[in-house]
Amino acid sequence: MIMRSAIPWASRITVLVLLIWAHGMYAAQPAGIEIHPGNPFYWQFDGKPVLLLGGSTGPVPHRTTGTPGLENDEGMFLWPDAIEALERLARVGGNYARCLMSGRVRGEPLWPFARTGGRYDLERWDPDYWQRFETFLQRAREVGIVVHVEIWATFDYGRAPWAANPFNPKNNINYTAESSGLPLADDVPHQNNSFYRTIPGSDHVPVVLGYQQRFVEKILAHTLRHDHVLYCIDNETRQSAAWGAYWCRYVRDIAAKADRKVSVTEMYGSHDLRDPIHNNTINHPELYDFVEAAQNNHQGGQSHYDALQSVRERIRAAPRPMNNVKIYGVDGGRFGTSKDAMERFWRNLFAGCASARFHEKHLGGSEPALRMIKSAREVFSVFDVFHASPRNDLLSNREANEAYCLAAPPRQYAVYFPASGEVQLDLREAKGGVELRWHSIDGGGWMEAKQVQGEKPVGLATPGAGQWAAVLRSGGK
Fold first, then answer.
1. What are the structural domains of the chain?
2. Helix axes 127-142, 206-223, angle to 10 degrees
3. Structure pTM?
4. What are 82-120's pLDDT values in tens digits?
């Protein structure tokens, strides 16, 4: 049940009309993005199983490295070249984009609300902001890209960005610091901002909650017209479980009234998936349709993979997709190198994750990132990941982080090598001849296929330096 706080009804009329339109359009829409019924660890899109791969870079260069995109904090739909970025991604087989509902833009900000007399009016929308969002959603659908929408841009609500945020009492005409309880200071840590304590059961501040609800309703008025959107409540939050659960239910209730089915998650900020805060999503499939593992992409090597396997085991009884909307790492950055990012991308896929996307502030849509996406499409065009599972138990003579295996014995096997290496792969279940093909991940392209004998372990040694994938198919099928 949706509990709306008291703000003028007239300010909700536009949202209501758009939601009614979304309800009317539902029957005409294709299936869109939904959990794959045949293997709930993955998604399907328009009725076909899909692996979500992404990486997009905006126009602003990093102040140290000069690499484009690394200083973009705003939502992707506000980039001057947002549509071109979507099209670049689609050309290499990318189909996954992140859309942070932020108003921060390097230079002149563009927030969701209109200004009046030098301050924002939280009851009036900025038409440019919302038109850019709608155009972005439309073009993403046209080129086959699933959009991950993050509702609350956590870092807009603390430190320096809070000074310019329309929800700050000093920046709007709708409430004061006294009536709202919100801080005026521009250096408040986001985790301490009372903006996150407005919901029932917490401080419950109806004067602010009503405008928060209205903002979420406006987002949904646009997204519920479409069927290619996944929802995440926050970006790297450390707020209470109650905050995420409240907004998850709020999104679901509005979607249900529009006769739409949505998939929702929460993203917690801890880099360690063993942190109890992640239990709020991992342990609650009744609330969260998928697990967002993005923060695990601060980890490296074998521990990065092992953490994903631990979560996969925990959700095995009720499988759900594990997504990675942000993969960290770029040369000159703070969270690992470009090589680290590329390895994280591939380990995610070989750990059985449903998505892998390079963070726009890291490798983003750079040439190496797009090359990884293209190589992944080539590898998984001949290997059916949706009928396979992580099987490192089939590897022997393996060192930590040397190789990773996906398999569906006896029919198909795939092995990823982050660098040159040599392991034994157990093919005892595969009968007769087995086709072996090597794919050069860094260079792109396949080597000539050759036959190896099944029914026994076979040695796999990478043909050269760099990253490699081996695909083995019984009978060449």
1. 9-386 (3.20.20.80), 389-474 (2.60.40)
2. 40
3. 0.92
4. 999 999 999 999 999 999 999 887 667 899 999 999 999
